[in-house]
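Good morning,

Attaching, inline, the backbone tokens for the sequence recovery test we're adding to the shared suite. The designed sequence is right after.
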């Protein structure tokens, strides 16, 4: 009897232990996991199934859905859905599933009365402990398309109505990703669910990373030093496994990489300022590259750079013959004065598209600002074009849907300073400061 009692106790302990393990196993929930009223718009957070960068291994990533208040309340039918590809972030707090800012791409675009869907991507949100897969074109586009399609299905299940119109948007890193989305759609990726893209608005994208690298090497200067470690680490991770950061960067600089990038605790401004102050000039915002890279970086025939160059070309968009034949129109926005993503990227993209028989695009190169300030102008440019866009044959439908949501905007002391103003107009015209919109304090930085 004592043996039986002891056995029962042991079995009971094992069972309780097993149940405790089962209960504490953090299996991610698939579907909507959060809803946030951000004042001028709503954000729904969700997890979705996709595949890892190898194109095969199943993984779960996080994403967000953004919509105007009127769409959220189902007062109006949404004009369609937009796939938003995010720009470079290094701080996990900046991910899509953490955005609440009125003055952001997500805030501006959601007020267009389209439903915007944006993946956190590799290395942020639910996936924060992993590396970014930075500028790995095919892998990033794949998870962005998967997020978009999953988000649309969730909206349908929630009873939201929207026109079957698809936008594809992105600036900087997001511009590269958006063009890769066009490429995957043209190649037929999930074409039964996403047969085409109606309108694509892209800004400041690094479409030709090999030529970009050559310019950096020849000039020996960077005005956005955060990008180079991200690009090289992304290319190493893309398949250049025989290359290590130590083969390209100086030993002194390598020691800072884990804290600056792997921790996901610092935004791009912090990292740039740290590198300027440590190795360059924080006053003129420039960095001689030979302060942080070894001589091998400047020689593309050196052993480490041979492998890196191969993957730079593999993840560029201009070295293989293809055209975005399932994308109706593309509008590009790129400044000739862009010091971070040189205009040669836009010139290479234009030559590639024309050479492959695609002419349904236009380029706005009117900005005289650098990369960051042109990003603000891109937001206004894209918001205006989204507001004015009417797909062929849908004139009557779009006439019934408001072009863009409007808001009363107050100063912090309660004065009405803008009456029924669109978000893109507020984004453009308001100076930096604290405002009250829909009863919430909003900071424009």
């Amino acid at each position: 009897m004592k043996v039986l009692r002891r056995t029962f106790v042991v079995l009971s302990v094992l069972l309780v232990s097993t149940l405790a393990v089962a209960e504490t196993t953090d299996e991610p929930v698939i579907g909507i996991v959060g809803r946030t009223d951000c004042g001028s718009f709503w954000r729904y957070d969700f997890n979705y199934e996709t595949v890892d960068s190898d194109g095969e291994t199943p993984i779960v990533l996080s994403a967000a859905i953004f919509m105007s208040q009127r769409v959220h309340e189902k007062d109006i039918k949404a004009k369609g859905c937009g796939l938003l590809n995010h720009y470079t972030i290094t701080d996990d707090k900046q991910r899509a599933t953490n955005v609440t800012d009125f003055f952001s791409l997500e805030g501006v675009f959601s007020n267009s009365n389209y439903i915007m869907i944006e993946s956190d991507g590799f290395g942020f949100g639910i996936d924060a402990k992993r590396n970014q897969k930075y500028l790995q074109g095919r892998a990033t586009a794949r998870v962005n398309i998967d997020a978009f399609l999953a988000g649309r299905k969730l909206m349908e299940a929630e009873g939201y109505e929207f026109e079957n119109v698809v936008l594809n948007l992105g600036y900087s890193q997001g511009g590269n990703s958006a063009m890769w989305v066009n490429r995957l759609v043209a190649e037929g990726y999930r074409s039964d669910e996403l047969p085409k893209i109606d309108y694509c608005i892209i800004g400041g994208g690094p479409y030709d990373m090999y030529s970009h690298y050559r310019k950096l090497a020849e000039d020996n200067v960077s005005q956005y030093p955060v990008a180079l470690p991200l690009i090289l680490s992304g290319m190493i991770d893309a398949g250049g496994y025989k290359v290590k950061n130590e083969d390209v960067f100086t030993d002194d600089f390598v020691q800072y990489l884990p804290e600056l990038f792997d921790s996901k605790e610092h935004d791009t401004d912090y990292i740039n300022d740290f590198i300027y102050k440590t190795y360059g000039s924080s006053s003129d915002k420039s960095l001689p590259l030979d302060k942080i890279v070894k001589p091998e970086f400047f020689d593309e025939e050196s052993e480490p750079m041979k492998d890196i160059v191969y993957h730079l070309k593999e993840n560029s968009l201009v070295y293989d013959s293809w055209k975005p034949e399932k994308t109706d129109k593309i509008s590009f926005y790129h400044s000739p004065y862009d010091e971070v993503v040189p205009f040669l990227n836009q010139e290479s993209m234009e030559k590639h598209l024309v050479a492959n028989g695609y002419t349904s695009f236009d380029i706005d190169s009117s900005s005289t600002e650098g990369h960051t300030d042109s990003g603000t102008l891109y937001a206004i440019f894209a918001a205006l074009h989204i507001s004015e866009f009417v797909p062929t044959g849908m004139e009557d439908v779009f006439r019934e849907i408001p072009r863009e949501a409007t808001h009363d905007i107050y100063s912090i002391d309660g004065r009405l300073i803008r009456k029924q103003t669109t978000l893109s107009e507020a984004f453009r015209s308001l100076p930096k400061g604290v405002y009250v919109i829909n009863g919430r304090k909003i900071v424009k930085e």
